[in-house]
Amino acid sequence: MTRRAGTAKGHAGRAKQSAWRAWWACALWLAVAMGGLATDPVAASEGLGRSASGLMHDEEALIAIYKAASPGVVHITSTVLSQDFFFRVVPERGTGSGFVVDDKGLILTNNHVVENAESLEVTLADKSKVAAKLVGRDPENDIAVIRVNVSRDKLTPLRLGDSSQLQVGQMAVAIGNPFGLDRTITRGVVSAVGRSFKSDSGRSIRNVIQTDAAINPGNSGGPLLNSRGEVIGVNTAIYTPSGGSVGIGFAVPVNTVKKILPQLIARGRASHPWLGISGMDVNPTVAKALSLPAGEGVMIAQVAPNGPAARAGLRGSQRRVRVGNYMVNVGGDIIQTLDGEKVATIDDLTAFLDERKKVGDEVRVDVIRDGKPHAVTVRLGELPEN
Q1: What is the pTM assigned to this prediction?
Q2: Hey, which of 54, 80, 221, 355 has its CA 20 to 30 A from 253?
Q3: CATH code where residue 314 lies
Q4: Domain containing 198: what range?
Q5: Phi first, then psi: what are they for 227, rounded to 5°?
Q6: Domain total in the chain
Q7: Residue 314 domain-assigned?
Q8: Which of 93-107, 240-254, 306-320 has the lowest mean pLDDT?
Q9: How far apart are CA 168 and CA 157, in angstroms?
């Protein structure tokens, strides 16, 4: 009885399986007949976001960006004179990228691409090579402008976008000359915004764009573009333990460029307000180690002779003390606020001056001096070139 019952259940299970197989066969036939499972590869590709050309829509977008923007990207070769072991003067050549910004021959690039160059040569999109002259540079933001004297039909100016509207995750496209390979395109995303890093001058470049679009040596000075083909940044640096791209690249935001570009064209340099001090960040750990009267702020180490701070009476360090293996300048005024706004680091201080002040403006500086609050008013000067 038990066995028969078991036999009866086995027949019922096989009947159910046969019914399911028939149902799936019918469903599959209907799907193919209605085009839901296309047997034609082209038809199938349309369901994956492809156009009639067989390319993905984002591929067509990249192609369009490249066709529109790459003619405006140039290859820059700089020649610097240096001395060899025997004190002979020898030329050293370096390469980088740049891009055309107007029909008069102005080209934007990085300062470090053209710095100290004895001569500059630009290779245009038609492979012609022309001499270029330096117009202006701003080491603080690693931006420079050069000019070539060619006819307008050889120039393709790129449109400058708005970096303040960037969103993390949006498309980012880099075009440049990595390792001398002309007009190479790479694609990624805006990985982060609002980054900062030190320029060669030691000052921080702020609001820097981080991208994973591959940037390598030779890309410096080339454009970082959005999906509309507008310049959103100037590729300037990478983080790399290997010497090549690891997906962490940085670009100076185009809004910074637009702010200083007129100054570079008009006077060859950008004007930066200057307090006339050097200092160190103070935090609770530093304050405890040095027995400072304030747990946060910027302690003035040196005051530039005859500079704005010196004329206003701000004081630098009075003595040096040893902390571990280091000698530290202490005893200077500890800056707390500028015009009432809290200052915790040197970066805070330079950001306030660059974004809120201009040369010739006055700023109230509140400090801790000898353990007591003190305030002075400083008329800002212009940051010296060197």
Answers
A1: 0.79
A2: 80
A3: 2.30.42.10
A4: 163-267
A5: -70, -10
A6: 3
A7: yes
A8: 240-254
A9: 27
